[in-house]
Amino acid sequence: MRRxxxxxxxxxxxxxxxxxxLLLMAYVSFxxxxxxxxxxxxxxxxxAYVSFxFERNLDDSLALNTDYLQIFLRSxxxxxxxxAFALLIGFPTALYIALQPPxxxxxxxxxxxxxxxxNLLVRTYAWILLLRNGGLIDGSLHGxxxxxxxxxxxxxxxxxxxxxxxxxxxxxxxxxxxxLEKLDFRLVEAAFDLGADRWRALTRVVIPLSMPGIVAGSIxxxxxxxxxxxxxxxLGGGKALMIGNLIQSQFGAARNWPFxxxxxxxLLAFVLIAMMAYLLVNRRTSEAR
Length: 289
Hints:
This protein is mostly helical. Helices cover about 70% and strands about 5% of the residues.
C-alpha cells in the first residue's frame, strides 16, 4: 500500500495528461470529418488512414498518392542528418569538456546550456538574419571574395538542418559528456602503453565506453526533430514541409482533425517501431557478447 501511494501521483499524472489525450486522439482519427471542421461524433471510418497513401477520384475509386509519404521520408532524412551533424559536433565537444579541470568543466557546461535561456522562436529568427541573402554569413563570404553570388541557403532543407542542429545540439553534448565524465581514463593510458595510437584508443576504448551517452543523445535529438514545427516553418519557408508542419496544417487551415490525428499516430508508430528494432538489435548484440 505504501509503495502504491508513492507511485500513485505519478501514475495519475501520466494517465490524465498523457494516456487520456493519446486515447482521445486515437478515437478522433477514426471519426468522420465535419463539414466545417471538427468531427462528427459517433460516425466512424478509416478514411483518415486511407488518405495517407491514397486519394479518391471523381468516381470514388482509389489512386496511389505518395505526397504525404514523401513528407514523412523528408522528415526522417532531415532528422537523421541533424542527428549525424549533432553527433559530429557534439562528441568532440563533450570529449574536450570531459578532459578539462573540474572548474573549467563546469564553466563549459554552463556555456553549453546558455542557448536554453532564450526562446526558440527568437533564436530561429536570428538564424534567418544569418542565413538570408545579404546576411552576415553571405556578406562576409562575399566580402572575402569566396563567393560571387548569393548563397541561397535560406528556405532550403539545408537551412532546416542547420537550425535543427543548433537547436538540439545541447541534447547531444550533455548525455555524451555524462558518459565520458565517468570514464576511467587510465584505460586510455593502458591502451597507449600497449602500442595503440590516438585513433585506435579513441575507436577501441573511448567510443565504446561512451556508447550509452551517444545512444541517449541520438534519441534525444532524433525524436524531437521528427515533430519539429517552428524551425522548419521559419527556415524552410513552407517549401520543405515536415511532419510537424503537416499535422499543424490539418488541425489549422485544412480543418481535417481525423487526418491530423491519424498522421500523429502514424508518426508515433514509426518512432515506436524504430525504438523496438533498436532495442531488439541491442539485446541480440549483448547476448552475442
